[in-house]
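Example record

One chain of 200 residues, shown exactly as stored in the release files.
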Amino acid sequence: MTTPPPMSKRLCLLGPESTGKSRLAEALAAHFGTIVMPEYGRRFDIDHMQGKDGAAKGENWTEADLVRLAATHIEIREALPLEAGAPLIEDTDIIQTAIWAEFLLGAPSPALEAMIATADLADHYLVLSADVQWVDDGVRYAGDHAVRQWFFEDALARLQKLGLSYDVIEGGDWNARTAQAIDFAECAIARPPVTARVSN
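Predicted structure tokens for this chain:
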């Protein structure tokens, strides 16, 4: 009887804008020799929401747009050719989309909250703190410190409510943040999988 290959674990990064999610996702993928599930929201925002001159940042979003975004993320993840046993690094997920929905729409999205309740969520989360400088790269638009702190705290609150495993990446030094992420990820990958989740 052959031993089945180990289950692939999923590590997801959450946090405010300009805190290094994509940067750390690539660093983790390189460290573990695996792939990244890319963030589609940024591309969607540029292509469909911001307008030709970028003047519509944060405007015109609807719940349907955000549900479409979350569904596309799921489709992208499920289509990735992940090698058995290799961790998947996710540069955002439906929880992050729900936080953005609350920010953009002014209230939680019932549709996204319902999706989260039955979603196949990551095995472990790395939540990035807002204690690094926000950089306006021409696409970002949630740079106010209070808003960034709200994104961070909302992510923690949601993970705690759902009973999900997470660690916090903090500090202003990028090398230190990367080292923290790798250490936490190695520990999370080594742990046995947890199947139970707190219900809403």
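Notes: Residues 1-5, 196-200 have pLDDT under 50 and may be disordered.
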